[in-house]
Each structure stands twice: as structure tokens, then as C-alpha cells.
Amino acid sequence: MTLNVTLALAAALIAVAAFAGWRGSKPPNFANGPRLMPWRFIMVTAAAFAMFLIVHVVNLLGVQTGR
Q1: Which residues are CB-contacts of 66 (< 8 A; sequence separation ≥ 6)?
Q2: Residue 43: CB atoms within 10 Å
Q3: Crossing angle between the packed helical segments 39-60 and 3-25, to the nearest 10 degrees
Q4: What is the pLDDT of residues 8-65, one digit of tens each?
Q5: Is 47 exposed, middle or buried (0-12, 13-18, 19+ CB in 10 A)?
Q6: Under 8 Å CB-to-CB from 45, ≥6 apart: which residues?
Q7: Which of 32, 42, 51, 57 shows the smallest number of beta carbons within 10 Å?
């Protein structure tokens, strides 16, 4: 992937992680019923993929991160 695509995907995943973190931290509203979206799982998954993309950006910039 190119640097621009990687940065755009990383920014999108960070935004998704922040939104899911905000939604997951809200207290449950029992009048509306149970939550149907696993917000905390979505937050952790998006943050993990964002970390992989950040490492990929660092590799694209020329830094060796592996053997």
C-alpha cells in the first residue's frame, strides 16, 4: 500500500476506535433494551488494526522494525 492510503486507513480506524470507545463507555439504558453492538470489541479491534498500520507507515518511512 502507498503512504497516502495507509495514512487514510489509519486515520479512519482511529476515528472508529474513538467513536466505539465513546459509545461503549455510555451507561446502559434499560428502557431501550440491550445493546446490540459490541462497542468495546469494535474499539479494541479497530485500535489493533490501527497499530499495525502505524507500524507499516513507520516501515514505509524507512525505519527497520524487524530482523
Answers
A1: none
A2: 20
A3: 160
A4: 999 999 999 999 999 999 988 889 888 889 999 999 999 999 999 999 999 999 898 7
A5: middle
A6: none
A7: 32
